[in-house]
Amino acid sequence: MEKGIGKDFFVASALMLAMSCASFAGFNSSGAFYSVTSSAGSASTTNIATDISPYSWINNGSWSANGASVSWTNNLQGLNPQTGLGFLNANIVVRNYTSVAQDFTINAGMLGFSTGPFVGSGSIGGQFVNGSGSLGMLTSTGPLWSAGIDGASLNGQLNNALFFAQPYQIVSLGSFNFSNVSIGSIDNSASVNFTFRLSAGGEASFTSAFSFQSVPGPASIALIVLMPLAGSRRRR
Amino acid sequence: MKNTFVLTFVVLSCGVLADTSRADFVEPAFGFSINADGVASNGQACDYGTVSHVGSNQWFFQGFTTHAIGTTLSWAYLVDPDPFITGTFTLSNATASTQAYVVDFTLPISPAMSASTISGQMAGTLTDADGSGSALMTSIGGGPVYTALADDIFVHGLMSNANQSVSTQFGTTSFSGGSFGQGAPLAGPAINSTIAIRFSFNLSAGDSVSFSSIFVANPVPAPGAIALGLLATVFARRSRRRS
Q1: What is the pLDDT of residues A83-125, one digit of tens each?
Q2: Among A21, A99, A145, A156, which residue's Cβ finds the most Cβ atoms within 10 Å?
Q3: End-to-end CA gap in chain B
Q4: ipTM more than 0.95?
Q5: CB contact under 8 A, A179 and B74
Q6: Rounded to two decimals, what is the model's pTM?
Q7: A124 to chain B: which residues are within 8 Å by CB?
């Protein structure tokens, strides 16, 4: 009798755990997206996603128009049900070889949905290369980089950025991290956004990461507490 | 007779000019190579992405390749065969173990120079790309991460004994690798055929690194050219005084 109760208990527990820990991972490589908007003009975006595993893929491509270009290599992982972890690493290089400063807005991310709760973490770092014979500038109004869920900003970094670089010199932008920011559920997307102005002849390169990790829900916590109790009852 | 000579001169000049401008619009054979733990691959950058003519003698290459052992390399480089190399590459180690990498970007130069001045700089970022909670980038055997090469011979190194680490999940760290000859270029060697930037480093599993760098070489005018310049100035002054 007690053996039967134990078996039922573990079956129910497994179901509860599955329901409690991010119950559905609706991400795949076809949902990987990338967009560029620039004052340099409009152009089509080449964006190729290559599957690495059922949960992870590489997304690379380029955009160029009228003397400006953006290239990227992004490693993405939709929510992996085994680890409860999803992330996107957005690595981009932007070059402005026009004769005037240009504005860029770049979005990278993945479409999908998943039931939370999650905690978000991330980071950004980069370099500014001035490839011109004049003083170079990289600026932003508001955060240069932000991580977002469902199109709403979760965390922003490099607020009102202002970097100068002498001719043919490189400036390190520093590195910025955040962690343990609460996320409810993801209804349609996880993404990062870059918005900045780059002087003529400038190149800006960024490496960034944004992750969302499942948080054990109340049912999972209850399960963790109850399992040792059930084990001790069986031993008795 | 005089008219024939002038006409011949003009035609020959146009030929030279046309030939020069045609040469300017053929992209240089900018190449890359990647060696990961002894497994090498290489190619012309234009065959792995795009190349754009962006200035009188400048070319912009961007591309992407996947190395056999499970490494991705992407780049965006501006080059001038006159010559300089500047740009950024990002490398991700998608293997399950730390790898030793040597990555070269090589540019044929034109014209050759009997003596040169050189300058360069590098900076980079390291990211815990797989969320393991740590990332590590170090020099190979304590040597420089950045090496400027002329005709495949060492001319300057930066970031010896590098030891950069990240200890937070999905964290990033930025580093400045230093510079040389900026503001006051250093004396360099004669350069006959190529300049190159080599990056040599160990990178932990699942992580990525990005390097931005510059290497510039300028010819030092030969004594004959300096004398010619001085004479031209003297003649110009004399002719101004006469008029």
Answers
A1: 999 999 999 999 998 999 999 999 999 998 988 899 999 999 9
A2: A145
A3: 30
A4: no
A5: no
A6: 0.82
A7: 172
